[in-house]
Amino acid sequence: MRKITLLKQARERLFQAGIEDAAFEANLLLCWACGCTRMELLQRDIIPDGSVEKFQMAIQRRSAREPVAFIIGEQGFWTLDLHVSPETLIPRGDSETLLEALLHHRPDRQAVRSVLDLGTGTGCLLLAALTEYPQAWGLGVDVAPGAAALARRNARRNGLSERTAFVAGDWATAIRGQFDVVLSNPPYIEHADMAHLMPDVVEYEPHRALDGGDDGLVAYRILCRSLPHLLSETGCAVLELGVGQEKAVTALAEAAGLKVLECRKDLGGVGRALVLAFS
């Protein structure tokens, strides 16, 4: 089938399904179906039948608002390529703000020796941090066994298996010990707002990783109570925040005896990464 016809049909179907960047996503999925780069795709006119069938199935799934990352099975984050699955949230660029904040406040790449990631999901935050701190080892914790298994797989993919461990367990009870760095992207969507999320999110990504309770702060209360016991004396924590949560989470942290070093904004101007340490 001719590429130009195939892409035109796909763009129209995606646009009708409410996909804003239909042209870009159609090209991305065709590259995936053909197993080629965008440059290689430009040089092709005819798409073989096997790739056409794979592409059309992908377009059908995307038209049902399944995220592209779940269709192709992977997502880039920081300098990593990561496997993804419906067991976890898809890593997002906003979360890279946590790593930028961490590197600013802990610039000595040799000094950080231990990193804890609470609610590790794909392992994206932990694995990215370990690529920046070569002397560190890391522990990732997630309540879902499937998420811990996926993070373990991502550690293998990125050559970090020997410096990581992943366990399934509850944040409040699973961990003992102190760490130089604690990272977390907890569930922070207010329960009443869950129904208003994009269908790509609410219909496909795990609600346990999104729903932060009635006020969106349930996980932060647990984190702020736990951090004084988990941080080393000179350690720092970096927590991801939702829109408008800086003041409330700051109050929880200060009540637990922690000091806010910074609330770093993401590219959209949202206060996204709250950096905490001992007063």
Automatic annotation (TrEMBL):
Gene3D superfamilies per the UniProt record, alphabetical: DNA helicase RuvA subunit, C-terminal domain, Vaccinia Virus protein VP39
- Detail which positions bind substrate: N185, P186, P187, Y188
GO BP annotations, alphabetical order: methylation
Where does the Methyltransferase small domain lie?
Answer: 100-220
According to the UniProt entry, the coiled-coil residues are none
Task: Fetch the InterPro entries from UniProt.
Answer: DNA_methylase_N6_adenine_CS, HemK-like, N5-glutamine_MTase, PrmC_N, RF_methyltr_PrmC, SAM-dependent_MTases_sf, Small_mtfrase_dom
Q: Which residues form the Release factor glutamine methyltransferase N-terminal domain?
A: 6-73
Keyword terms:
Methyltransferase, S-adenosyl-L-methionine, Transferase
EC number in record: 2.1.1.297
Quickly give the catalysed reaction.
L-glutaminyl-[peptide chain release factor] + S-adenosyl-L-methionine = N(5)-methyl-L-glutaminyl-[peptide chain release factor] + S-adenosyl-L-homocysteine + H(+)
State the CDD domains in the record: AdoMet_MTases
**One MF annotation (Gene Ontology) recorded for this entry:** peptide chain release factor N(5)-glutamine methyltransferase activity
**Presence of the UniProt keyword Methyltransferase in the record:** yes
The UniProt record gives the binding positions of S-adenosyl-L-methionine as: G119, T120, G121, T122, G123, D142, W171, N185
Q: Which domain of life is it from?
A: Bacteria
Q: What class of enzyme is it?
A: transferase
The family assignment reads: Belongs to the protein N5-glutamine methyltransferase family. PrmC subfamily.
Q: List, alphabetically, the NCBIfam families matched.
A: hemK_fam, RF_mod_PrmC
PANTHER family associated with the record? HEMK METHYLTRANSFERASE, MTRF1L RELEASE FACTOR GLUTAMINE METHYLTRANSFERASE
| Protein role | Methylates the class 1 translation termination release factors RF1/PrfA and RF2/PrfB on the glutamine residue of the universally conserved GGQ motif.
Protein name according to UniProt: Release factor glutamine methyltransferase
**From what organism does this protein derive?**
Bombella pluederhausensis
Upper taxonomic classification of the species? Bacteria, Pseudomonadati, Pseudomonadota, Alphaproteobacteria, Acetobacterales
